[in-house]
Amino acid sequence: MDTSQYLVIFFQILGSLALLIYGMKVMSEALQKMAGSQLRHILGAMTTNRFTGMLTGTFITCAVQSSSATTVMTVSFVNAGLLTLAQAISVIMGANIGTTFTAWIMSLGYNVDLTIVVFPAFFLGIMLIYSKKRRYFGDFLFGIAFLFFSLVLLSSAGKALDLEHNPAVIDFFGSFDTKSHFTIVVFLLIGTLITCIVQSSAAVMAITILLCSTGVLPIYLGIALVMGENIGTTATANLAALGANAQARRAALAHLVFNVFGVIWVLCLFYPFVDFVCSIVGYDPDGGMSAAQKAKLLPIVLAMFHTCFNVCNTGVLIWFIPQLEKVVCQLIKPKADKEDEDFRLRFIQSGIMKTPELSVFEAQQEIGSFGERIHRMFSMVRELMDTQTFDKLYERIEKYEGISDNMEIEIAKYLDQVSDAHLSDDTKAKIRSMLRAISEIESIGDSCYNLARTIKRKGENKEEFTAKQDENIHQMFKLVDESLTQMNFMFAHDRQSINMNHTYNIETEINNFRTQLRNQNLDDVDNHLYTYGVGTLYMDIIQECEKLGDYVVNVAEARMGTRASA
Asked: Quick check: 450 pLDDT over 80?
């Protein structure tokens, strides 16, 4: 075979791997869209103990065919405070078991002619894609068809290479001493590096199966590559956790520690363990089998090793989750608590392999954080009325106003990026509601700043409120604070469990109190209880509080997906 033919086959393999990665991505995203928020609810509800957490991780990973998607989702939930570190570790253990299902699918592709299902799946998928109700199932069929088709192409490319009759390739792999632990470690590191680079353990598994099925790559070296792939696949979650909080970074690190520990103990028992796996399948690693038998059994050996490795590792470490938790807590120390004075998004990350459903969830958590910041800003305004360190507190309020503007812009940008994806109608409606909510929350920040400026103007003019005016302002502040507390309660709970009546009742109280004070103010100015200028400053504060209350109602209605206030 000449160079040009090798080049054609090389690009066929590259294209097949690209098709494999794309097919898995399409299939995973389609399944997550079909499941909608159910995956999130399952992950949150079914992690009451280490065993249910492990089973949940296994189930979700088998369903979405991506351990990276499960681990990134888990890290995001830890970042949002929805899962504890111990729960996340058990889910990640389950994800490692679930991802072995992919290897079994690939081994099937090398032993069964998948073309009989690929083309019907393409045909059915294209019809369903144009159906509004079934378009996600059409996407899923396209994804699985691409996956199977890539396996067919890889298998044919492997046969076309005819590596088993290429002396140079045989001599190259034959030059490695398969009985040396050093050689095993070298191939383990190669598998880790390739997986980190391509960000797809499935692609590395496909390459390994291709080389082993041709007979040129000894089974011991192929298994070393699979072990390296187990370590390399943890890079995805660790990259996604870089901008997250300490607990999320610990969850991602636990994934790495879990797999590294597994690799270490398997290396200590490497040859007996591999021989045991081979005996289960009926494969003789020392020869004595025909090339056809080897080609048929080697993909199954790799899939079986992958499963045995992850099941045994989980079976050992699931009893030591508290100790694993302590290890990662020691390795990643939380940053010293700082006053929350700098702009930083807490939940939105630049993550990898995120779906619209997960992105919308992160944005919702960030909006809840936005609401909490604004509530803190209002608490500073309340304190401003009585503080002795006025200038320092006023500067903080100014800084928070800038943070409010930045948060609105950044969350809106993120939601705009999410809206570029292929979204369900429900997700589109959620994004519209969120955009409306962040606009109204930013307006609350503006109102808080306006209140601070009015209070500052009062001090600059050396005006003083009467005891009754101070009492009324504090009473109004108390109502507004109650309104903001209710707003943040709504962000922390599901819409189905929220009652809007409490928000409307507080708003009615604010409006009635504002009207009462406005009428009283006219009488007090007429009776010369205070000057017109003092009365104007006083009513500016009261009117701004009433306006702030209106914004809170608008946020609440956006959260519930109802119409805007009249």
From this structure: yes
The rounded distance, in Å, linking the Cα atoms of 465 and 546 is: 19
Long-range CB pairs of 157-165, under 8 A, 24+ apart, other chains included: 157/9, 157/12, 157/13, 157/16, 157/210, 158/210, 158/213, 158/214, 159/214, 160/9, 160/12, 161/6, 161/9, 161/214, 162/1, 162/214, 163/211, 163/214, 163/215, 163/216, 164/214, 164/215, 164/216, 164/291
- Number of neighbouring beta carbons within 10 Å of residue 148: 25
The whole-angstrom separation of Cα 318 and Cα 89 is 9
The predicted model gives 344-357 an average pLDDT of 62
Per-residue pLDDT, averaged over 96-121, amounts to 78
Long-range contacts at 492-500 (CB < 8 A, ≥ 24 apart): 492/368, 495/559, 495/560, 495/561, 498/559, 498/560, 500/556, 500/557, 500/560, 500/562
CA distance 555 to 479: 17
Scan for tokens 């067919």, then name that residue.
152
- Residues 510-549: tens digit of each pLDDT: 999 999 999 999 999 999 999 999 999 999 999 999 999 9
Report yes or no: 257 and 237 within 8 Å, Cβ to Cβ: no
Q: Count CA atoms closer than 13 A to 419's CA, side-chain side.
A: 14
Q: Which two tokens stand for residue 346?
A: 């807490």
Who's near 546: CB < 8 A, 6+ residues apart? 510, 511, 514
- Contact of 42 with 60, CB cutoff 8 Å: yes
What is the enclosing helix (H) or strand (E) of 437?
helix 425-460
Those residues with Cβ within 8 angstroms of residue 61's Cβ, 6 or more apart along the chain or in another chain: 67, 69, 70, 94, 95, 97, 98, 99, 101
N- to C-terminal Cα separation, the chain: 77
What is the number of other CB atoms lying within 10 angstroms of the CB of residue 166? 15
CA distance 281 to 300: 7
Q: Which two tokens stand for residue 405?
A: 């503007």
Question: CA separation (Å) from 191 to 98, 120, 205, 273, 470?
Answer: 20, 35, 9, 19, 71
Q: Specify the DSSP element, H or E, that contains 521.
A: helix 501-526
Measured distance CA(226)–CA(204) in Å, rounded = 8
What pTM was computed for the model?
Answer: 0.63
